[in-house]
Amino acid sequence: MKARGTLIILLLSTFPVAAADPPMVCFGNEPSWGLHFADAVSARLELPGVPPAEYRGSATRLDFLHERIWRGKPAAGGGDLVAFLREATCSDGMSDTRHPVIARVSLADGRFLAGCCRIVAALTAAPQAATSIEGPTWRLTELRGLDPSVLRSAARPVTAGFKAGRISGFSGCNQFFGPYAVDGDRVTIGTLAGSLMACEEPSMKVENAVHAALAGTFRYVLADNRLTLQAGAVPVMAFQAEPAPALEGVTWKITGFNNGRQAVVSPLSGTTLSATFKGGWVEGFAGCNTFRATYTAEADRIVIGPVALTRMSCGGEGIMRQEREFLSALQSATTWGFMGRMLDLHRADGERVLTADGD
Question: For residues 331 and 292, what is the distance between their CA atoms, to the nearest angstrom?
Fold first, then answer.
């Protein structure tokens, strides 16, 4: 949608809706502006280069126009902000998606912002008891013959996940993967493979014990989000289901990005790339500059808008090229998901564009 400005509006209950209704996000293109409604009477306006402004107001519905109007006054004094939300098909100009509401916002200084609205799906899963060996990420809590304190003191937990005949996870030092098959209450795990990095003790002791134990046929028992693998009646390993990972509210440290030449590469030594998704915005550090862009995410689909970033120039070898390639990869993402607890983004042709670990 062509507009003199852009807008993101987050409406949690700006007008009377059922408590269970999902929020709406209204957004536009270049540049990045935002107006967040925390409830029916309060809003926060975000504009580039100025501190956020808080508003208090209320909404009125015009049924004959299929439109809702929210009017608010700034807490610090000044003129009104008015948001017009009309129920009509809207194109965001970024994708083929059609959104259900058109947004228009008038500011006291004469600026007029325009955008589309979408219904926001929850990006976190409600906790549920595990009913299958498949699906959850399982964190190792007990291993026969290994002191439990060694597992508790590890910098990173041992994990395993079962999906579509493939087990994968982290064994103390390296990532691992291999085949498995389920027959009734029995699971047979085949030969494991993985990365070959060497680590200091006790990480290698844990990894060697995990690889030695996690092979063969086991009887599995599920109870209270706990998975136990048994050899006959003897427990060999016990796992606890980890909470479902969430896209939002996590600082993601980039571990790999597509360089545009059909290769996913690690960040340059001594550089850090990061991204945080929250409230319709993704922002972070691209190795030299900080960046910010709008995004929408529904189910496993994601659309990331044009990136705005600071204008520093860094002299290290390859840093500016890495920044361009990383941001290009980020904006090309069309789907998102998780490998265990690692964020995994892909583009429309299925090629991976980014992986990240959450802090």
Answer: 11
Q: What is the mean pLDDT of residues 179-191?
A: 93
CATH for the 251-358 domain, from 3.10.105.10, 2.60.40.1180, 2.40.128.270, 3.90.79.10: 2.40.128.270
Q: DSSP letters along 58-108, please?
A: EEEEEGGGTEEEEEEEETTS---EEEEEEEEEEE-SSSS-EEEEEEEEE-T
Q: What is the pLDDT of residue 169?
A: 86
Give the lowest-confidence range in 78-92, 205-219, 288-302: 78-92
Amino acid at 171: S
Helix (H) or strand (E) holding 211: helix 203-213
CA distances from 312 to 43, 307, 318, 320, 324 (A): 33, 15, 15, 10, 13
Q: Is residue 50 scored above 80 in pLDDT?
A: no
As a whole number, mean pLDDT of residues 157-167 equals: 88
Note the maximum CA span of the chain: 76
Using CB atoms within 10 A of its CB, is residue 347 exposed (0-12), middle (13-18) or buried (19+)? middle
Answer for the pair 103, 95: CB distance below 8 angstroms, yes or no.
no
Structural element, H or E, at residue 8: none
Provide CATH code, domain 137-241. Answer: 2.40.128.270
C-alpha triplet 106, 107, 109: angle, nearest 5°:
130
